[in-house]
Specification:
The protein has a domain of about 190 residues: Butyryl-CoA Dehydrogenase, subunit A, domain 3. It is built from 15 helices and 14 strands. By secondary structure, it is an alpha+beta fold. It is globular. It binds flavin-adenine dinucleotide (FAD).
């Protein structure tokens, strides 16, 4: 397994192909480092013997100890541990732990490449995947899930767009590999991952074979351009805090006639499997959401309970009501993830696939409660955390004493503790970083309507009608 220092050294060795704020930048740019620091948690936790078995696993391919983020789940226990690891990691980073994107992508490839080979009887995508995953685990790599196409006119299919490049497609192929063109949007970690794993965003039809493509390339590959946007809580000048060392990056990733050798191609032209890849990834990723969103609710509950204590309103009826409601949301989402694991099915490759219905209802409950739950924090925080003076003013000889005198609430709580809590509330409620991640909590893993579609396509409403007909004595 890699250490976090080795990971950083590997990033520094990569070819420069990241662009930010109008110029090329290195992967250790100070605006990208907060995202790198989140990745470091995933390496540090795996190195710590106290987390053995939660952040580590034994590879079914090599028998070696690996980071659980590189694991392909082949049991219910694996799925349960993945979910628990993500909740633990998200509590540490204070928001999205991010690396599960790659975990869910390799799990998807393990399922669909094997099914694809079984269906065609002539392709060799699964043996290629096996070679890829062994090296991926051995080198303890991080992959970005590169799924969301630019898409163009949302009302039109890939082949109906005015520009065919609006969905990533194969423009040519020869005996050595394929050449791909197009762009993917919102790609988290693209600027600090090792591998970009690309796969379709939607179902595809017979006349959309050129868009039925899945492949992996190192993120610094020639003709890959990463146009990055970084977000993090405001930098602390005096009151340093762990939260303010973390952050994320999301990017527009452009494939400008990028060459991909065949041994890294996992689908090419088999349009029937485009939707399978999209949906299998979605089930796996929405199961991961059933781990991270309870952790976000944990943070929300902690913010509310601590604020109530520091403000002197602990135990008041409306605080207790909010906490009970939030505990219900957190544990229902987590329980949906447990159900998705317990009811999971084994694919032909031996990979355990979370039950789509439970993964989707859990993710849906989380998404539709995002703003509701943060609204509760805003309610309890009052107005001051979003209007409070800048950090330096607390330490200025002229303004500092006024601020200390007038920001006291519960007299047993020190000025510094109150300052720290309110500045953290400010980061979570009113920073641009919080705005990015609240939208991410709505759209990440697919916008809300996609969960509804997944639920409606698998749920048996006719069977429910029969239940009522029997109760009502209706005979057809
Ligand atoms: C912070 C963040 C991180 C992300 N990270 C990743 C990542 O790492 N990898 C990745 O691949 N993606 C990532 N995403 C992208 C995410 O998966 C998409 O935002 C999501 O799938 C929605 O797609 P969209 O943004 O193109 O929205 P749109 O498709 O533009 O949706 C906008 C609205 O239009 C509606 N709509 C769209 N098409 C139709 C239609 N045909 N019929 C009816 N209504 C329609 C939608 O329901 C929605 O209400 C990330 C997004 C965010 C915000």
């Amino acid at each position: 397994m890699r250490t976090s220092d080795e990971y950083l050294e590997d990033l520094r060795r990569m070819r420069q192909n990241i662009y930010m704020g109008g110029r090329p930048v290195q992967r250790d740019d100070s605006r990208i480092m907060p995202g790198v620091n989140v990745m470091k948690i995933t390496f540090d936790m795996a190195q710590d013997p106290a987390n053995s078995g939660l952040f580590t696993e034994t590879s079914q391919y090599t028998g070696k100890k690996i980071n659980r983020f590189c694991n392909v789940c082949d049991s219910v226990d694996d799925l349960l541990k993945k979910q628990k690891m993500i909740r633990t990691g998200t509590r540490l980073s204070g928001f999205c732990i991010q690396r599960c994107m790659g975990t869910d992508t390799i799990n998807m490839l393990s399922v669909v490449t094997r099914d694809l080979d079984d269906a065609t009887g002539k392709t060799e995508y699964y043996p290629r995947f096996l070679e890829f995953i062994k090296s991926y685990q051995e080198r303890d790599l991080i992959a970005a899930a590169v799924q969301t196409d630019a898409k163009g006119d949302r009302g039109k299919r890939p082949h109906e767009q005015v520009d065919p490049d609006l969905h990533v497609r194969v423009v040519s192929q020869n005996r050595d590999g394929i050449v791909v063109r197009g762009a993917k949007e919102d790609i988290t970690m693209a600027s600090y991952c090792d591998e970009l794993i690309v796969f379709p965003t939607r179902t595809l039809t017979r006349n959309e074979k050129q868009w039925a493509v899945a492949f992996a390339v190192p993120s610094d590959t020639e003709n890959v351009h990463i146009i990055n946007r970084a977000s993090s809580p405001r930098e602390r000048k005096i009151l340093k805090a762990p939260l303010n060392t973390y952050g994320s990056s999301d990017a527009l990733v452009v494939f400008d006639d990028t060459f991909v050798p065949w041994d890294r191609v996992f689908m090419c032209g088999e349009h029937e499997f485009g939707g399978r890849m999209a949906l299998t990834f979605a089930s796996s990723h929405r199961h991961s959401y059933c781990g991270c969103k309870p952790a976000v609710e944990d943070i929300i509950m902690g913010l509310i309970a601590l604020t109530a204590e520091y403000y002197g309103v602990e135990g008041k009826h409306h605080i207790r009501e909010k906490l009970a409601h939030l505990a219900g949301i957190a544990e229902l989402i987590y329980a949906a993830g447990i159900a998705a694991a317990v009811e999971s099915t084994r694919s032909a490759s031996g990979t355990q696939v979370p039950a789509s219905i439970y993964a989707n209802v859990g993710r849906r409950l989380a998404g539709e409660n995002t703003y509701n739950c943060w609204g509760m924090v805003a309610d309890v925080a009052g107005g001051f955390p979003v209007t409070m003076p800048f950090e330096e003013d607390y330490f200025d000889p002229v303004t500092g004493p006024f601020i200390s005198k007038y920001t006291v609430r519960n007299p047993d709580v020190s000025v510094e503790k109150m300052h720290r809590l309110q500045r953290t509330l400010s980061d979570y409620l009113s920073s641009s970083w919080a705005g990015v991640w609240q939208v991410g909590d709505v759209h990440g893993g697919g916008s809300p309507v996609m969960e509804s579609i997944a639920i409606l396509s698998t749920y048996d409403f006719e069977e429910r009608k029969k239940v009522v007909k029997r109760l009502a004595g209706i005979q057809d």
